[in-house]
Design a protein that fits this description.
It is a single chain. About 20% of the residues lie in helices and about 35% in strands. An 8-stranded mixed sheet has the order 29-30-32-31-33-34-35-36, with helices on both faces. The protein has a 5-stranded mixed sheet with strand order 5-6-7-8-9, with no helix packed on it. It has a 4-stranded antiparallel sheet with strand order 1-2-3-4, with helices on one face. It contains 14 helices and 36 strands. Among the domains are: about 200 residues, no CATH class; about 260 residues, 3-Layer(aba) Sandwich (Rossmann fold). GO terms for molecular function: serine-type endopeptidase activity. Keywords: Hydrolase, Signal.
């Protein structure tokens, strides 16, 4: 991290850029555009102008992460005036360093976590290090990490004691006597992880003090409003979760739930106003997760909220940070369930919501006195907007747009869908239609993960890119996806290439039957597991799809079982065994590699040469088999990329090739050739 003064040219330009963006957006709305206006491909690659927009505890400053347009491996922390939003300071992240996360620890002191480019790979990775920076760019210290005590990060950085460990901030981020609470885990080669210690960290000097320990390795911790670490939870292997509570830092831990014996999974979230109850997420039975209040003294629980079919998302804290006022819901488009509808926060949010139809608006950051807040507005068509809200006068002032180049008159709405799989299981997802008249050529975009991950409503640059080029985009949360309860996830175990794949097929046929999709112009696309499902789809349904695009895809389940970095810890091995199975002949039968001879579709494959999550051996073996069967394919390999492409130029090349591939196989060029 560098000093605000003597900025490099790009950083100085960013100071002006922030101001000009704010002025331009506030002064004049985007011009009206035709629904068919093409959006430059680069606009779907560009990072958001602003992210993690927050207000300081005293309201004097606003802050946000701003990208470095000249180097994707670096960004800056922009500090703005809390009333005028005028740029005050720009704090660069440092050479080959990204500010991954940050928070205000006092009125003028921030704590940041970094991600760094390592071993020549393009994608930065977090290291568990913590840094302290004053709002004016002064007093920059590396407070915690394995490079503390060295001179390897930034020429203006002072360093604390070197620790070969990672740190996570727990509890209220605001420091008391210049100290915050952290959970630390020593680096280890032990496949079961390391003990979790509870420490205090001085935000000025980096000095730490150990005040206790978690009841198990690799634990997450919850702190009450009195600064007492009173709840802990950890995964045992992959499948079981245990939860402990205690009345104070000096008391012993008591096991409150073990999912292996209770059949119920409980995840702590935070304490209520008087510290008597703990908000928890509860997974049990065949329904979606619920938010409940648990008595930490005896483990008893009462219901707060459960959706119709989808899990709840985040809980929104009250202005005084002592409770929660709402839960973001996900039954279709996101909404808000108000825990206390009579609270000031709930009433003001409801009033705000009426001004943003079809969007989600909520308070995301408050001052210490609760008088000012950041309003975050999320849209499926134009990304995020931010406003400064005065809770006393009820006045909102526009601050900034994360993606001001997006015109919601040109981008397309993402609509929730529901269908029933062939075995009667309800499925949910989203459909984004291009401008024009159906039926359209359609791309089925299959999310990765797969277990516990889900497509969600909101701005998705890939979806909007495809819709802008004339394609309907179907996203289905097949069994195994997250967001619909624990049982829905479990239904996907050992179903790769079986019922999980059937769900994708059933969703495709549903879109055709509804008249949205042209049955002769269908293509599958996905990354990671999505790449697997795209290729397995054209193996299992050789006459349904015209093409498939695999991006960092799994093509041999045996390779994934043997060589993925998921195997580096025992919990990862447990996951692979439960998700995939261990019968090697069966794994080959359920792999695209085992069905190459059945493929009729046109193929495009892209992979990073240094991918450790889905080893490059997947690509090499699969293309060798395609060559042996004389199955044509197009490919793109980036030797220094890992799991997915990070560098903008690599993503731009990939998406350019992808659009050309689609155009030739199901798009305008295909249609032109077919027309006499």
């Amino acid at each position: 991290m560098g000093n605000t003064h003597g900025l490099r040219p790009w950083a100085a330009a960013l100071v002006l850029g922030v101001g000009s963006v704010l002025t331009a957006v506030a002064a004049a709305p985007a011009p009206t555009a035709k629904a068919t206006s093409p959006i430059p491909l680069q606009d779907f690659i560009r990072p958001a102008n602003f992210s993690q927009v927050r207000i300081s505890p005293d309201g004097k400053y606003l802050s946000a992460i701003v990208p470095n347009p000249q180097n994707p491996h670096e960004n800056v922390l922009a500090i703005l005036d809390g009333q005028t939003a005028k740029p005050l300071h720009v704090i660069p992240s440092g050479r080959n360093a990204l500010l991954a996360d940050y928070f205000w620890a006092s009125d003028d002191r921030l704590i940041a976590a970094g991600a760094f480019r390592q071993n020549g790979l393009d994608t930065p990775r977090g290291t568990g290090e913590l840094y302290g920076i004053n709002a004016d760019g002064k007093r920059q210290e590396q407070l915690f990490g394995y490079r503390a005590g060295s001179d390897t990060v930034g020429s203006h950085m002072r360093h604390a004691t070197q620790r070969y460990a990672s740190a996570t901030v727990i509890g209220d981020a605001l420091a008391v006597d210049n100290r915050i609470l952290i959970a630390t885990n020593a680096f280890t080669d032990d496949r079961n992880g390391s003990a979790t210690n509870i420490e205090t960290l001085n935000i000025m000097t980096g000095q730490t003090r150990t005040i206790g320990a978690a009841p198990a390795r690799n634990a997450d911790l919850i702190v009450d409003h009195a600064g007492q670490v009173r709840a802990a939870w950890t995964n045992d292997g992959f499948t079981e979760m245990r939860v402990w509570t205690r009345p104070s830092n000096d008391a012993p831990w008591t096991l409150r739930n073990d999912s292996a014996t209770s059949g119920v999974t409980i995840t702590p979230i935070g304490f209520n106003r008087d510290n008597s109850r703990l908000y928890v997420r509860v997974s049990q039975g065949d329904g979606p997760d619920a938010i409940e209040l648990m008595n930490p003294a005896d483990g008893s629980r009462t219901m707060v909220y459960q959706g119709k079919f989808a899990d709840p998302m985040d809980l929104l804290p009250t202005a005084d940070h002592l409770d929660y006022y709402a839960i973001i819901t996900a039954d279709g488009k996101p909404g808000l369930h108000y825990i206390d509808p009579g609270s000031q926060e709930a009433q003001l949010t409801q009033a705000l919501d009426s001004n943003f139809p079809g969007q989600l608006a909520f308070f995301s950051s408050f001052t210490r006195d609760g008088q000012h807040a950041i309003v975050h507005v999320i849209s499926d068509r134009s990304g995020s907007d931010y406003y400064l809200f005065d809770l006393a006068t009820h006045q909102a002032k526009f601050l900034m747009s994360a993606q001001p180049w997006l015109d919601p008159k040109v981008t397309r709405p993402m609509e929730p869908i529901a269908l029933t799989a062939r075995d009667g299981l309800p499925l949910h997802g989203f459909l984004t239609l291009p401008a024009g008249k159906a039926p359209f050529p359609m791309v089925v975009v299959i999310h990765g993960g797969p277990h516990g991950v889900a497509d969600q409503w909101g701005y998705d640059p890939e979806v909007q890119m495809l819709a802008n080029h004339g394609y309907a985009v179907l996203q289905v949360n097949y069994r195994g996806s997250g967001g619909y309860g624990a049982k829905f996830i479990e239904r996907g175990y050992r179903q790769w290439g079986l019922s999980m794949q059937d769900d994708v097929t059933d969703a495709t046929l549903w879109a055709v039957k509804q008249g949205y999709a042209d049955p002769k112009r269908l293509c599958l696309y996905g990354g990671s597991y999505g790449g697997y499902a795209a290729l397995e789809g054209v193996v299992r349904e050789p006459d349904l799809y015209e093409c498939a695009i695999g991006y960092a895809g799994v093509y041999d389940l045996r390779v994934q079982l043997d060589a993925s970095d998921t195997r580096q810890i025992n919990a990862g091995v447990d996951y692979l065994h439960r998700a995939l199975g261990t019968d090697r002949a069966d794994l080959l039968r359920r792999s695209p590699l085992g069905g190459v001879a059945r493929i009729k579709a046109h193929l495009m494959l892209a992979h990073g040469g240094e991918d450790k999550r889905v080893p490059f051996l997947n690509f090499r073996e699969f293309t060798r088999a395609l060559d042996a069967q004389r199955v044509p394919y197009e490919s793109l390999v980036e030797p220094k990329e890992g799991h997915g492409f990070f560098l903008p130029e690599h993503r731009l090349e990939f998406y350019g090739k992808m659009l050309d591939f689609l155009d030739r196989n199901i798009g305008a060029q295909r249609q032109a050739v077919a027309t006499p």
